[in-house]
């Protein structure tokens, strides 16, 4: 009887050790959860920093008219009241022909 009880306890211990080490709720599962928790905490910290930056920008947009005008000019390409836009075209054909060695107006007679 003692022998059967001892075998039962040994098998029970082996089963519990297997569950402790190999199952999803065991040591490896715990280590995976810790890794996920650290990754999520890092994402949360980054999100908090982004939220603070956006909050600061919103406060600036509401309170600082110069900052607002600067953002409008940069993001929406607006001009000031007395500003002029100069548009420069790409290199002309004559310049391109000089680089290739061809005459600028060859064969146009």
Automatic annotation (TrEMBL):
A Pfam family the protein falls into: DivIC
Highest taxon of the lineage: Bacteria
Coiled-coil ranges (or none): 30-64
Any one annotated GO CC term: cell septum
Alphabetical UniProt keywords: Cell cycle, Cell division, Cell membrane, Coiled coil, Membrane, Transmembrane, Transmembrane helix
GO process annotations (BP): FtsZ-dependent cytokinesis
PANTHER family given in the database record: CELL DIVISION PROTEIN FTSB
Name of this protein: Cell division protein FtsB
Species in which this protein is naturally found: Desulfobaculum bizertense DSM 18034
